[in-house]
Amino acid sequence: MLAIRLPAEVEHRLEALAKATGRTKTFYAREAILEHLDDLEDLYLAEQRLIDLKQGKGEVIGGEEFWRGVTD
User: Fold this and answer.
1) Domain assignments of the chain as residue spans, ordered by start
2) 1, 31, 58, 69: least buried by Cβ within 10 Å?
3) In this predicted model, what pLDDT tens digit does every residue of 4-34 receive, in sequence order?
4) Widest Cα–Cα separation across the chain
5) pTM summary value
6) Can you say whether residue 6 is alpha, beta or left, with left for phi > 0 and alpha for psi between -120 and 50 degrees?
7) Interhelix angle for 25-54 vs 8-21, to 10°?
């Protein structure tokens, strides 16, 4: 179960879309989350990896070494 607060403008847009299409606001909220969750994970995990690297946690390898490991 998830409860979220949206800015009034977004709430109104969501209500209008739901009313115009006969679907629920929950349907569109779910669709939006599913559509963008992969991108959000990529972004925030990459940002965390960068922070870790700047703090000396982890190791950076070159592209050639990376691809060699992938194809072995």
Assistant:
1) 8-71
2) 1
3) 999 999 999 999 999 999 999 999 999 999 9
4) 55
5) 0.63
6) beta
7) 140
